[in-house]
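Input.
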Amino acid sequence: MQNFICIKKITMKNLFFKFWFWLIIFWSLVFLVFFFPKWFVQPAINQSLDFSKSGNIGDTIGGIMGPFIAIIAAFVTFIAFWVQYRANEMLRKDIAVERFENKFYELMKLHRENVKELNIQNKIMSREVFIQLFDELRFCFYSVDACINKNGILLIEELDKIEIAFSIFFFGTRIFNDSLISEVLKKYDKEMVRQILEKIENSESTNFGNFKVNYKGEPKNFTPSYYPFRGHYAILGHYYRHLFQTVKFVHEYDSKVIDFNEKKGYLKTLRAQLSSHEQLLLYYNSLTGAGSDWNIPENDFLRKYRLIKNIPLPLADFGITPKEKLGERNDDGELLFEWDE
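Output.
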């Protein structure tokens, strides 16, 4: 609501200034009119404009002044209508801004409530969920990479690895069957996907919760405090849909009411609600088919509004890094990541 109050003060200030501007012009004209009778009865250089010898000076002045007074009256009437029109326009805009802000802050409230309701097997709650989810996604990627390298598959790009890893992380290993593989990971070899699923399920562990895998010759551990690889679509699907619709609502709102710079300000407020690990997961989600709407040219939300500006770059060290995918600056020349500032 602070932005709305600020905008309202600015518009009312502009209206107040314009009112006094035209009022000063009006009284200046009236002041000049008071001197017309004296000027009109003075001897003139041009005799055709000499009114000093007119038979009825009152009728002369009345006839001369009538059109001027009528013009001033018409002008004042126009100014009155114009001021009222501008006031109505500003009032309509203020109401539109207020409606926008009410809707936006309601969506923000729902986002915070969605985060509070996150729950992994009644073991991890609220915002801490994203820390554990990111660790699980990273381990899924390590496992995908290890399985692909073990089988000598060289045609799989980093984006493909992320797509497979995120799909397994999102749906879980147990839910995958041939039909789901054909639907979600249809462009990949089924046998390869089955091997990856099996590897993740049977990750070498010394005890429960201590999963190990080699990534680029280095051992990587994953120690969750819950049963991993069960899928998180039940909580993340709703979370990402709502977050996307909130950003889209701001992006598509009438630019005559909320201009682009103001939209960036509102979405900066939204970004402030996202933790570092939320932004990490949002980035990797945007690299998949399910989250591609974040990056398509007509949206380009991550770059246009710098939605992952606070992402901890050292943690986004697998797959395609944010700088490799998004660059360092957006089209407006703004730095995309605060780590570069």
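Residues 233-340 form one domain.
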